[in-house]
Amino acid sequence: MTDTAATIQAARHGDAAARAAVARGTTTSPELLTFLAADRAAEVRQAVAANAGTPPAAARLLASDADAAVRRVLARRIAALAPSLGPGLGPGAQDRMARISAGTLAMLVEDAAVEVRAAIAAVVRDMPDAPRALILRLARDTAMPVAEPVIRLSPLLSDADLLALIADPPAPATRRAVARRPALSEVLSDAIVETTDTPAIAALLANPSAAIREATLDRLVENAGNHSSWQAALVRRARLPAGAARALGEMVADHLLGVLAARPDLPPGLAETLRGRVTARMAQPDDARAEAALFAAARAGDRGLLTEHLAEAAGVTVARVEAALALRSGRAIAGLCHSAGWSAALAAEVQAVLGGLSPAEVVRPTAEGGWSLGEAELQWQAELLEGLPA
Question: Within a domain: residue 41?
Fold first, then answer.
């Protein structure tokens, strides 16, 4: 490759946009790319990091760049080369240039910035020929944006690898990631259940392709009365044994009755019983029925349903509700619930469930069940939210 005089002039004396254009060039020489790897502008260094023609030695320097965005771009490109870098993260590479690239990848996979490590995981997560050492390192990352894509999708993880993650999870959500893996085996499902990790078991039950022994499923149904998230997943499982369906019919939360009653595979008589309970619930006054369903959703931790109903009832977008919740202000959430026409008691539940507020932070109703905040304060809080993203 030979750089033209104009290219060299742009690289040395052009503005940042001109220098970045040279750095992106497919015919730019390795020497000029190495020169631009030390450019003062991050956008230029990002372009060098993304260029397939950048020499491995220059890429190695960029792996220590002060700008995480530069390292993220580099990580994405180097990760794509992983299958050619040998079985490990360094010494197995076949030639000097590959060894340098393998060393660069080893640096990036230990980068302090989650976004850099996550960029690698996004590229190699389903590679059948990625270095196994790299996959195992990413799967044991404590940051789930890094570990989860690999845990869920890598064909290189064996049942033994996954059992090790279940037994000794590097992060609280590691087991949940395993539970969401497609086509999970019965052995792995049993191992997750044995941990008594409630969120992981809920994720397992919600995984339609997870193989779960009938005996294991019956055992989970027996204990689902104390776990509304399990109930929500169980009533939607594609295959539900008759005994499990009957047991669920006795305990399922009201807002899930309709879902269970609509299943086409219920034992004889159970569907009619459940539909009768649904009809009885529908016979309640509309406001009472709606509020009861929302209380049930709050107790079940159904954030999606609460958020959607709050947005609809308050006449705002879901984005505005989420922006209000991000304020972590009990008064702001109470004002939004008041605008929706919800009771002070329901607003307290919403503050705890959607807002994640502690009991001390929640605006609670009076002893009579009314609002502890005045009407003017509630309206003012609602008006303040109008300036939030729509």
Answer: no
Domain hosting residue 319, numbered range: 299-387
Percentages (nearest 5) of helix, strand, coil residues in the chain: 65, 0, 35
Instruction: Please count the structural domains in the chain.
Output: 1
Q: Please tell me the predicted confidence (pLDDT) of residue 252.
A: 72
Q: State pTM to two decimals.
A: 0.68
Largest Cα span, the chain: 86
DSSP string, 38-55: T-S-HHHHHHHHH-TTS-
The answer to whether residues 333 and 350 touch, using CB atoms and an 8 Å cutoff, is yes
State how far the Cα of 212 lies from the Cα of 221, in Å rounded to an integer.
12
Q: Taking a C-beta distance cutoff of 8 angstroms, is the pair 104, 61 a contact?
A: no
CA nearest to 118, candidates 68, 155, 157, 191: 68
Do residues 154 and 139 touch, judged by C-beta distance below 8 A? yes
Is-contact 299 228, C-beta < 8 A?
A: yes
| Closest alpha carbon to 353 in 297, 314, 309, 311 | 297
State the Cα–Cα distance between residues 382 and 5, nearest whole angstrom. Answer: 63
Taking residue 282's Cβ as centre, other Cβ atoms within 10 Å add up to 10
DSSP state at residue 233: H
Residue 236 belongs to a domain = no
Check the CA dihedral 7-9-13-15 and report its sign.
negative
Residue 237 CA, chain-centre distance (Å), reads 21
Residue 269 tokens read as 């008589």
Q: List per-block mean pLDDT (blocks of 10 residues) for the chain, which spans 390 residues.
A: 85 94 94 96 97 95 96 96 71 67 93 96 95 96 95 97 98 93 96 93 91 92 81 83 82 70 79 66 56 81 82 82 87 88 88 88 88 83 70
Residues 6+ apart with CB under 8 A from 200: 175, 176, 178, 179, 192
The verdict on residue 355 lying in a domain is yes
Contact (Cβ atoms closer than 8 angstroms) between residue 380 and residue 329: no
